[in-house]
Give the backbone structure.
Amino acid sequence: MDSLFDNYRIQSNDHNEITVALGSEALLGALRSASTSAASGSSFNTEEIVMKLARKNDQALLSFEIYGQTRVGNKMRVAHDVRIQVMKPVDVAKLSEPLCPEPDVCVHYVVGLPTSLQLVTLTRLFSFPFSI
């Protein structure tokens, strides 16, 4: 947990553990809006992300509040609610790793990565339109 969060608090009746089931698409949407990488083209610089376990209209959810600034310096708050299902400790105890069959064939090979000069050449080829 220390590698993911720098300030967190978890409280539950089950040894301070909370297991939830959630849809990956909804979670991905919330995390994308928090992304501030230049490659993503974000015009929003994230300063803080607050994630809370909440309940709205009798539905459990993870509420993400993302605080930051726009490129022009205006403060901004973005909120996402991700529907979840809080699992009971009895149901969590029934979970196990899926059993995977042994593979029929095992192929080992070494892949040689191209040099940086080869990558630059390929990139240049695909970035300019060809004339026929």
